[in-house]
Design brief:
This protein is of the alpha+beta class and 367 residues long. 31% of the residues lie in helices and 23% in strands. It is built from eight helices and eleven strands. The strands form two sheets. Strands 1, 2, 3, 4, 5, 6 and 7 form a seven-stranded antiparallel beta sheet that branches. Strands 8-9-10-11 form a four-stranded antiparallel beta sheet, with no helix packed on it. A hairpin with a 3-residue loop joins strand 6 and strand 7. The chain is flat and about 90 Å long.
Length: 367
Amino acid sequence: MSEMLSQDEIDALLRGTSESTSSTETKQEVHLDSMESDALGEIGNISFGNSATALSTLLQQKVEITTPIVSEVTVDALRERYPTPHVALRVGYTEGLEGENVLVLTREDAAIISDLMLGGTGVGVDPDGLDEIRLSAVQEAMNQMMGAAATSLSTVFSKKIDISPPLIEVFDATKTQTIIDRLELWETMVLIEFNLKVGTLIDSKIVQIAPIKFGKQLVNELMAATAPSPAPAPKPEPVKQAPPQPQAQAVAPRPEPKSAPEVAVSQAEFMPLHAPTSNEAAPANLGLLYDVPLNVTVELGRTKRSVREVLELSQGSIIELDKLAGEPVDIYVNQQRIARGEVVVIEENFGVRVTEIIQPHERIGIV
């Protein structure tokens, strides 16, 4: 007959079972459903479309970043995916979003981008020549690209989103202590693959890798930004009570026909045109126009040049405008000049401070 277990042995077994259960629960991973994958693809399509424009300006080449494909991947799968050295850039978010993601591109593509950034043609570039200077050029290109993507997300999510400068390295997935090893903290990751075309020089792929948690955060932000505003509840109508019925009804006399009342007719009078004052009340339905988008343009100055002079323009050419230094710039709304102002700098962006409002009666005849 076997001996009975002591209380200490029973407690030890229970602790072991509890620890095993909690360990199993911590290893449970979160995954994306089909709706979330589609939403991430759409977010990538919007943000990287703006990135392509920024990269095209930097490289002076036509850039296309299209057709995002969303999937899930593990660290082991990444090692198999990148058996040769690649270039990775780690991008973190400092405002608006919490988390980070990694961009991966081939050394050949990185070498061509760096050569174009440094004024080269991008033809016949050796991928083994990615020294510190060339990696810095790639880093700056990706910084501008991801900055443009963050600007797009700011518009879509209706909130300010900013990134930190990306960290770049050439990694070999077959070795340890690389950026891939640091991705293990993310467990299962979301992988978004884009087609990358740069002129006739690059026809390849660029890959964005992020934690599942970060991907779900993007989806939640998109859902919150596109959710319709709740409609106000209709006010209940008062219940009308039927009038009491009389016990006996008298026969009403037949009504005599009446002639139609005379309507007073007067000449139409129009209010004189004048500039509205601050004391005048705004129309009650003016709020219906508050969400109508208007194009605001600030014009630094104008000039005229002949066709020959325009064709002779090249990079570095200077065009003299008709405005003097320090003179107010013109502010247009939907191509109509409405104010004047002075150029200011807000953090890292240009802005304009309104110094004079052009009165409505003064705008007549203004071109």
